[in-house]
Amino acid sequence: MADYVKVSTIGARPLQVERDLEPQAVVGRMIEHWRGRLDQVLPDRPDLILVPEACDRPLNWPADRAKEYYAVRKDQVLDFFSEAARQNRCYVAYSAKHQVEDGTWRNSTRIIDRSGQVVGTYNKNHVVIGEYEDGGVLYGREARFIECDFGRVACAICFDLNFDELRLKYVEAKPDLILFSSMYHGGLMQAYWAYSCRCHFVGAIAGPPSAIISPIGQVIATSTNYFDFVTAIVNLDCAVAHLDENRDRFRRMKAKYGPDVTITDPGYLGPVLLASESEEVSIRQMVEEFEVELLDDYFARSLAHRHTPGHIEP
Predict the structure, then answer these.
(1) What is d(CA 52, CA 39) in angstroms, rounded to the nearest whole number?
(2) Percent of the chain with pLDDT over 70
(3) Domain that includes residue 107, residue range
(4) Is residue 314 part of a domain?
(5) Residue 145 is part of a domain; what is its CATH number?
(6) Is 38 exposed, middle or buried (0-12, 13-18, 19+ CB in 10 A)?
């Protein structure tokens, strides 16, 4: 059945503060900065809010002063986002550098649930070398998935987007959403990750446009040069199927279900996105009813056919 989730992404630029400001004063400025940014999307009553990588790092502070700031900040900004999540009954994906119990550092996205509790943490798997050498940030080991009440979430942070090692784990697991907090945009890699992982992709980029992308690589909604935030509703009850051998099945599916099924063709690609808008029938049930072959099954069958003895040239 239709499975709608309302997602907000905020691509606010890092806050600049005076270099001689006391660290606790910076914490206060940072919290007020993000209070204002959240106020832009809270009227939409989103289920999930995503913010950029290192969202509470003073942009223009040198490493030694930033270290002083983090020592004072501790969990104060985390606590602010947790209270905002609790008061507004939404999830917040908060991305920041933080120190763990053994004293080492991570660049993490922490998922805060509707009650204000941290229910999952993703540690950036592919930090840039300078993060380790200059900032002492260790590489994350795992690609963790976070179960939310609307679906299964995976995360990526900035430099992660360049590495198949992480992406292929998500290709295998097929989460409902990939949350990408970043200081860099990633360009074509955003759509590629969405398509290859067959899931929706939400980016929060510090400065450049932040977008919500469908599993066929189409931009559903994006922030602009005028507004650094955007909110959109996505339907997680969806599947990707190729046009080959499915065209008649799509026609019959549409004839029966009408507006209760959408079939979105991005053009040039071959696959389409199927989504159930019905309150009673899921897209999986529709696919089974009309014997639609999903994209990954079609590709697997095509590879198996190629490797059948006698099918490959001598």
Answers:
(1) 16
(2) 100
(3) 4-235
(4) no
(5) 3.60.110.10
(6) buried
